[in-house]
Amino acid sequence: MSLKEFKDNNLNGLLKTVFVSLFTSFIVFGIVYLLKLRFIDNFIPKYGFFIFFSILSYSVIIPAIKQVRVHNDFPCMGGMMIGMTIGMISGFLPGFFIASTNGMFYGSVFGMIVGMGLGVLSGKCCGIMGIMEGMMAGFMGGLMGAMTSIMMFNDNLKAIGIIVFVISSVILTGLNFMIYRETKGVDKKPTDEMFNIVLSFILTTVTIWLAVFGPRSGIFG
Amino acid sequence: MKNTTILLMIGILVFVVGGFVFINSESTDTSGTDAQIMQGETQRVVLSQDGLNYKDIVAEAGRPIVISADSSVAGCLRSVVFTANGKKYSKYLKTSEDTLVLPSLSKGTYSYTCSMGMGYGKLVVN
């Protein structure tokens, strides 16, 4: 089984989901920006980079969740890998970007909630082991993302944000390939894009609200 | 729809929004620039470490403060963050020659931390 087969059979659906997620999030961002955010002093310099990369992060996490939902039945090892990867990355990235604007406490809490939520949602495809793995990875990823951001606050924070995003994207692409390999020949459950649109909408809205209007730790006061 | 078409659409979306964000990422806030901070005679204050935190420091009101760190300050405590009058002033004071300039402050006690928020200290302005 090669990457070429994956490209021919599976990539189209993933790219469509990336596009749908990006489109939804950018529409939300655009509307909120025009109505409210453009009146905030220095909105783009302060928050633009972190909100933009949060949106990009959601657009690479959501296709992996969709892949899991399409099959929804994996052996224990595969399910643990799914729960761990999605939990860790969906905790790390939001934690990192929110901690950059709101501080370590709020970044950690947000990262843990998103990471554990999406980790459990994805990990339950293989039962309790996947659920536990999703919870543990989301818990760890949320804290780690926020901590990394604060530790690098005065040391090329934006550059490390880009590097972390690229590495996470590569890992999630690997996970998508693994899911494709594990489920080759298995019937797919029909799904539409509504779940992905709703998830993108919720994550983007909460991220924007939290980054711009949310509570902040002492050093951001 | 072909993969290349979707990729192109994704690329255009990211390029347009990313371009907008990066073009506008230059701050227009000039209230914290060195030119304004450096007005008036400056006073020099040296930070020292006391256990896991900073020693408290004292400065005079109405004069800009130039802050440096001596060799007792180690690790992440060399990356210092002050918040005064709603603005954040931060710098990595890698050597004793590196300085962070604060504007003149009014009387009061200001807290400061390392960039991780783990080490604390107080700046007392008389």
Instruction: Note poorly predicted spans of chain A.
Output: none
What is the 3D form of chain A?
A: globular
Largest sheet of chain B: 5 strands, mixed
Parts with pLDDT < 50 across at least 5 consecutive residues of chain B: 29-38
SS elements, strand count of chain B? 10
Helix content of chain A: over 70%
N-to-C SSE string of chain A, H for helix and E for strand: HHHHHHHH
Mean pLDDT of chain A, rounded to whole units? Answer: 90
From the N-terminal CA to the C-terminal CA of chain A, the straight-line distance is: 54 Å
Portion in beta strands of chain A: under 5%
What share of the residues of chain B does DSSP label as strand, in percent?
A: 35-45%
Binned, the helix content of chain B reads 10-25%
Structural Rg of chain B? 21 Å
Return Rg of chain A in Å: 17 Å
Overview in brief:
The complex is a heterodimer of chains A (221) and B (126). Chain A is mostly helical and 221 residues long. Chain A has helices at residues 3-9, 11-35, 43-71, 76-102, 104-123, 128-151, 157-182, 194-213.
Keywords:
heterodimer; A: 221 residues; mainly alpha; 8 helices; B: 126 residues; alpha+beta; Immunoglobulin-like; 2 helices; elongated
